[in-house]
Fold each of these.
Amino acid sequence: QQPVQSPQAVILREGEDAVINCSSSKALYSVHWYRQKHGEAPVFLMILLKGGEQKGHEKISASFNEKKQQSSLYLTASQLSYSGTYFCGTDPGRGFGNEKLTFGTGTRLTIIP
Amino acid sequence: DGGITQSPKYLFRKEGQNVTLSCEQNLNHDAMYWYRQDPGQGLRLIYYSQIVNDFQKGDIAEGYSVSREKKESFPLTVTSAQKNPTAFYLCASKGIGPDTEAFFGQGTRLTVV
């Protein structure tokens, strides 16, 4: 089952902040975040691991609540280049047989000047 | 340069015909994935493979088939049994482990008429 993202869409003025949420019904080992521009391939932003380790983008931050199986992506002082659709991806854990990377429903972010 | 290549970018087929989408990667990744993207539904997992000659069904595998004869290649066949095949298809690859990022191809837009 896909993770659920909220909001589905948001429009911001340049410089405003946004929070995108991702919620899963299954236990998670890690959460991935990607951004997709229209007609292009999704691009990696960051990974959050169980235990608090993070890997990824310098100007974007995120949180991962393992107990609630939720993650949030924080976009501060948004720039026009932040426009696109954001996806969270969930990974069930380590070991062979656990490479099922499932993505969420997406959040469409539009930044206006 | 290392990367993941999908071909063709656009594909048109008549209803009732099988069609195969190509996905090749030279990143030496063990895991490969196929996703279907429809407006408002995010990225839905069709099939994934963690090792040569092995693959698992994703969440929407009905009407699709795959093979993994080589580490570099993971072709997807959309069969005539798929009731609504018109969509944007994305292929991805990643290393083993929840802390490794996925790389996506540029996608294939399939239109069945």
Amino acid sequence: GQNIDQPTEMTATEGAIVQINCTYQTSGFNGLFWYQQHAGEAPTFLSYNVLDGLEEKGRFSSFLSRSKGYSYLLLKELQMKDSASYLCAVRDGRTGFQKLVFGTGTRLLVSP
Amino acid sequence: EAGVTQFPSHSVIEKGQTVTLRCDPISGHDNLYWYRRVMGKEIKFLLHFVKESKQDESGMPNNRFLAERTGGTYSTLKVQPAELEDSGVYFCASSQGQGRDTQYFGPGTRLTVL
């Protein structure tokens, strides 16, 4: 079966650092994605991990451990505009198949 | 470069009616996907086109849903007849080619069935 877990909601303060965790159990694996989604808007691509380790992109970093079925998204120097939902998604591992399996998303609220 | 666009942004229909959603992918993207998010649940995959062919339609809930992508450009998703449980946000995404390409999402169509 497919199961992706992430916290429902998190709160943090402007300027702080927050880590959003994601654990997964899927029948196949071909990469893990993080998307940001503001209410009523399109999910926006943030990061992609297919090998173990840390990928850094500006204020955002994402980590993957395939053996543990675990990823996290790290947001540094939080800004008010970072208040959004963060979606963890795993790509189907079968050749030629590309579907994403999503978690329910983590709603992050950044306060002043 | 224009992103993925979807039309309409909102649709309110009565149970038993028909609704057609449209998605225009990013120009040059061969892969087009439909996903759906019902209230309080996660985004779930519906189907995947490669050009005009259906590569994977394992997520289509039943035969009331019909997706087409004639000519391999835009796609339509028709729900006929609509039921209450079809309410939700329907997202379209596209990606360029095979392999590990990123999927870029549209803003979604919010469908409400009364």
Amino acid sequence: GENVEQHPSTLSVQEGDSAVIKCTYSDSASNYFPWYKQELGKRPQLIIDIRSNVGEKKDQRIAVTLNKTAKHFSLHITETQPEDSAVYFCAAIPSGGYQKVTFGIGTKLQVIP
Amino acid sequence: NAGVTQTPKFQVLKTGQSMTLQCAQDMNHEYMSWYRQDPGMGLRLIHYSVGAGITDQGEVPNGYNVSRSTTEDFPLRLLSAAPSQTSVYFCASSFQTSGIETQYFGPGTRLLVL
């Protein structure tokens, strides 16, 4: 089955700096890669996603890149703000859908004012 | 739209007790699923449903039952609670007829089994 590794497990950055979280996956059949943000005690919420036919996607301060050859995808947050502090999860999903989803273990991001 | 709702928010059970976690969505989503979230392990799929009357097992189904009698509701039943089932449970749904659509999560149920 699919295996998703997420690094780092914790990340501290100064406000205004960039943060990068990386995930690697093992199953070449995975073709959809969402990123979720989960604030303390709240539900996971989709912040950005990318499909395997796209190499990069950007939404304001958030971007995701995908390298299918190396089987890794990364979340980039620029100009970080204290409200970006949360746990971020990546996931890999094959064409079979969410029935076969595999999540990363999460990265706790702390933005220091 | 209320989106995905879950009840209760918190529950304490004794070992061996049974209970049902409720999940409902008002978005006419075909696909619904249950996850558990444990520290250091990410989200793991328990059971899922691709439509009313159709359910199947996910990665960690043991000790749990589900049913899907309507499009809106997808309850999760713990048959005989064990301390290993202490976790946070999330229900999720997506409008999935073909391809992959955005998945929406409920607010979660925090369960403690003593």
Amino acid sequence: AQTVTQSQPEMSVQEAETVTLSCTYDTSENNYYLFWYKQPPSRQMILVIRQEAYKQQNATENRFSVNFQKAAKSFSLKISDSQLGDTAMYFCAFMKLLYGNKLVFGAGTILRVKS
Amino acid sequence: DTGVSQNPRHKITKRGQNVTFRCDPISEHNRLYWYRQTLGQGPEFLTYFQNEAQLEKSRLLSDRFSAERPKGSFSTLEIQRTEQGDSAMYLCASSIGTPYYEQYFGPGTRLTVT
């Protein structure tokens, strides 16, 4: 079974600065996707970024980028120019590409952006 | 595209009662997922539908839980004889599958069993 570990329960960052959230996973699969989801307080989960395991290039979406290290099974999220609206719980999630594509989530990291 | 909707948003029930939740996925999405999220934790997979077929169920889904997706549109999740341990946020997500596999989540139904 796959497992996802987020070792930082809480992080804080000053507005406009850069922060990196860590995620490691364990799998014997070769074909999979990795995701970062954001869950603002009392609001629904939204997708931040997606990484296909077969792609060597790290995914980027505006201020969000990932550092995907397949051999190390590491998938960190970098948020540049942090904004107050980035305050949320961030979940790393693993999806293998067979058998329904269910998501396996980590426990999450609470990110607080301070003004 | 109005996104994934879930009803009710909140449900308070007494132990032993039955409850039913509804999820309306994004209209063109053929895949529908139910997850359970307890406070401070990541969501855990419960079950998955492709169109009207329920293709996978987690061991978390005890015999008291049943889910349906008639005609491959909306889905319902029923919990019979609720227990206090069932208190959680129940999330629904939908997906179009290939090629991106992204799941879009609804706002959730928060269940409190007293």
